């Protein structure tokens, strides 16, 4: 994989746990350069490809890798997705108050 | 003369009030007597429920029976678990309205997300209703043994209006058209709208609902508000921060448009135990602000299954296994598993796993269960643990895992139970929480991966009898009257005179889910995983006895109907 860039998040943990609809998936925790953290849930098929792309042989081997190895897991043959063709996270433009 | 009398039962009426002994009478599909003695009354059918609980039929609010109900009116084996009503069309996917030209694209998306074999889907779903939601309601309702409350899928709605290119924001005219179509669906009986913020389609793109700007969702919720119908959301369940944001968004929609909302799934994860607390606190804030936000929690734990023929998540946590499972051919794998040096190394890795406290898959291989065998001579091994079989064969569980697989040409399936959502104390507390909606079973989906049946039995066996997290009456209320009230199914969920006669008769001391077993009953060659009932005595749908322990499924029983609001 490419060298870790200072401005990209890294994987700090990968654990097997409940996934969408009760499937076993892997939840990867990402650490951003500014200290922020986020989580991604990755299905078995995508994770298998990510592991291959990263050249590791265990979940622990993903720790410390740039988060882009997980994107590699989505790089399927025939995938019609140049770059990351994704919608923004669809939350309201304005903060919603519950008070 | 009544149609049906259930005598001497322990009536748990769905309200949460204490159980009491009495009779139940049914006529014309309705409850005509609840609690009073019917000793001298006569009926076409009498059920002796002495020692059994008589409760409302259970309602499953998160299912994907959309495809199965087209070719299996019994939704086998859901009804035998006491389930008399199901909500379909969850997660932004419903079988209508779908244009004839978009059927294959939609089907591929449904099959991928809900894990339905292509042969089963293509053979079983005949689209006999055409394209419209009303047509689907009418067609399916003619031949169904359970009650079905259908949602409209947001992704489907976008495909219907935006056409094949639904990966974009809609124009103002298109949003208006979507609102009109949604209104038509609600008029035809839809109980609400489902949307997803996490699913992907077969091209690995976000599903159409994820491309909708918030203003579009607001417009659709305004239509839901005209009739007070439900918004179901699949949220970013793996990220507590995003989930809290979704809850705040849903609370705003609920208050603004006076609609109930529900999100699913909410899991407990031992590696992030604070997440559930954070999410439930957000739910409590939402309710305190006047919103209705119901997180759905499933009762069953998460399992993982594998063979040694293919790579699986399992082999990423067992030291040394991934390279062997990554060998290119079956022959190479067989050679590796039979090579003494490699075999010894793999056994050592598996034994190491058992001693690794830092791993979240720490259980000793002795607890792994044989799920399916590849040869008849080993059929009696199904359902047994490797530890049990190893003692019998004079070997170790780790060696047995490899040797049994080799013996069966790597066709043996194993299961490691309880890898998540398995902290009984924590999950029990979640299920008992007043704002938690018991659901998220996913019935009818993921048929080739795991069984989605029997969550209701598991609620009683695990969380009533074992952990005592809920009283019997409260557990019944959670999956009957609470569910009916949340979804506005006013005719159901309670044993009360005048209400629809959906009834489950069960043994409170034994009700449970059976072991996971393979079934080849679906169209096509693929097997699916199911669980049969344990401890259920009889199930009545709208007054029609549909299943009984003594006679099984009653041929021709079609008491079900589409629950159109």
From TrEMBL, chain A:
**Record's protein name:** Unannotated protein
Question: What is the organism of origin for this protein?
Answer: freshwater metagenome
TrEMBL record, chain B:
Q: Please report the stretch or stretches of sequence annotated as the Amidohydrolase domain.
A: 45-230, 419-543
**What GO CC terms are in its UniProt record?**
cytosol
List the molecular function annotations (GO) for this entry. Answer: hydrolase activity, acting on carbon-nitrogen (but not peptide) bonds, in cyclic amides
Q: Which InterPro entries match?
A: Amidohydro_3 (IPR013108), Metal-dep_hydrolase_composite (IPR011059), Metal_Hydrolase (IPR032466), Metallo-dep_Hydrolases_sf (IPR050378)
Gene3D superfamilies, alphabetically?
Answer: Metal-dependent hydrolases
Protein name according to UniProt: Unannotated protein
User: What organism is listed for this UniProt entry?
Assistant: freshwater metagenome
Source taxonomy lineage?
unclassified sequences, metagenomes, ecological metagenomes
